[in-house]
Design brief:
Length: about 200
């Protein structure tokens, strides 16, 4: 009897034919899952970046009227004073007395080293009266303050209905959360809190 072992090994075994239409749904499913994963990952990364550099804040009281009304939602730049310096007129969010559970929003009026005087309805910084078209009413109180280094003097735009530096003193820069950039809700009040709202000292 002849040995057919070698001959049998050389004969290829026929593989069953695969219908290309069966591979296509599997490839589409894998592609969809990969795209979904990449989209979710990108969304998470963007959220973390956005949450690191910005904060969303809701206005709860009337101390910043007419500029900011109750219920307004603001976007706050948390990096503003890590790469820059505060300016008079900036609207800032800060931890009241350093308490992270209680945030206030006010306008910067005095910078470190400034002399702030309020009398006869006029706010003066370093003996120069401020032009403040954004306030609700002229302040009906008086006082004089020197702003310490590393601190800010802040007032609410609703001067006579605001708990601020004229009552409890200055704000340490370490307490500042960031600079309010814009109102993003409600839609009919969307606005940048920028140049038109900045305090300017008259010559």
């Amino acid at each position: 009897m002849e040995d057919n072992t070698q001959e049998n090994q050389l004969n290829p075994v026929a593989e069953p034919a695969v219908d290309p239409s069966q591979k296509e749904p599997q490839q589409k499913e894998k592609s969809f899952l990969r795209d979904l994963f990449e989209t979710i990952l990108l969304a998470v990364v963007l959220f973390l970046i956005l949450n690191t550099v910005t904060s969303r804040v809701k206005v709860y009281n009337i101390s910043m009227e007419p500029t900011l009304k109750q219920g307004y939602l603001l976007l706050v730049n948390k990096m503003a004073y890590k790469i820059g310096e505060p300016k008079r007129g900036d609207v800032i969010v800060f931890h009241f007395q350093g308490d992270q559970a209680e945030d206030y929003i006010k306008r910067v009026v005095g910078l470190p080293g400034d002399q702030v005087d309020i009398a006869n309805g006029i706010v003066r910084v370093n003996n120069q009266p401020l032009t403040e078209p954004y306030i609700m009413d002229l302040p009906n109180y008086t006082g004089s303050w020197v702003v310490p280094e590393g601190e800010l003097f802040v007032l609410g735009d609703n001067r006579n209905h605001s708990s601020d530096s004229h009552q409890w003193g200055t704000v340490k820069l370490d307490w500042v959360v960031g600079k309010a950039l814009l109102v993003y809700w409600p839609l009919n009040a969307v606005d940048l809190l920028s140049v038109s709202n900045i305090v300017s000292a008259s010559p």
